[in-house]
């Protein structure tokens, strides 16, 4: 009886953990955008770092993933900013739509290989 109760609790906890994990994978924050920030000197880098935004630093610039209130803070800080993608949720939702390079490669090569197999079969049949 106790073993069944413990087993039920373990299953329930595992289900809740997996549910929370899948909810966390929902994508970007509402209205989140990709912003390029020019880093001209060390003080720009320090200033941006002190804002504690989700930032990827590169030589001479940084990419910040910001919501509108954070974009306002970036602009008010005096840093040079340029919005690269204004809606990351929309971009990620439409990522696979209309991108032939991800869907047509297999179909095109499959057709080519199928034709090669048929030609080989016909050649071997004629050889007999």
Explain what you see.
The chain has two domains: 2-93, Metallocarboxypeptidase-like (Alpha-Beta Plaits, 2-Layer Sandwich), CATH 3.30.70; 96-128. The mean pLDDT is 78. Strands 2-3-1-4 form a four-stranded antiparallel beta sheet. The chain has helices at residues 2-24, 42-51, 68-76, 88-93, 100-127, and strands at residues 33-38, 54-58, 61-66, 81-85. By secondary structure, the chain is of the alpha+beta class. It is flat, with a radius of gyration of 27 Å.
Helix content: 55-70%
Computed structural class = alpha+beta
Total domain units: 2
- For the report, how would you describe the main beta sheet? 4 strands, antiparallel
Keywords summarizing the entry:
2 domains; Alpha-Beta Plaits; four-stranded antiparallel β-sheet; 128 residues
Topology:
Layout: H1 2-24, E1 33-38, H2 42-51, E2 54-58, E3 61-66, H3 68-76, E4 81-85, H4 88-93, H5 100-127
Antiparallel strand pairs: 1-3, 1-4, 2-3
Nutshell version of this structure?
With 128 residues, the protein is an alpha+beta fold. The chain has helices spanning 2-24, 42-51, 68-76, 88-93, 100-127, and strands spanning 33-38, 54-58, 61-66, 81-85. The protein has 2 domains: 2-93, Alpha-Beta Plaits, CATH 3.30.70.340; 96-128.
